[in-house]
Specification:
Elements lengths: L8 H25 L13 H19 L7
Helix pairs in contact: 1-2
Length: 72
């Protein structure tokens, strides 16, 4: 099913989750440091920070678990 030299799709999904998590966390931190003039209704929950952290954790998990060169 998995031929030598092929990369797992889950590794790429992990890299994408990690990249999106870094971007969302960065935007959340920026919004926390300099809040907008008219904040959103639930802005005090800082969803960008939580969501970015969750995506980073999931991305790291998938990237490490399915990294290339790992013996099954």
């Amino acid at each position: 099913m998995h031929r030598p030299g092929m990369l797992s799709i889950w590794f790429f999904i992990g890299v994408l989750l990690l990249a999106y998590g870094i971007l969302i966390l960065g935007a959340g931190i920026y919004e926390y440091i300099s809040p907008p003039e008219h904040p959103l209704v639930l802005a005090e929950l800082h969803a960008g920070i939580w969501w970015g952290g969750l995506l980073i954790a999931m991305g790291l998990f998938y990237s490490v678990k399915f990294r290339p060169g790992r013996n099954n």
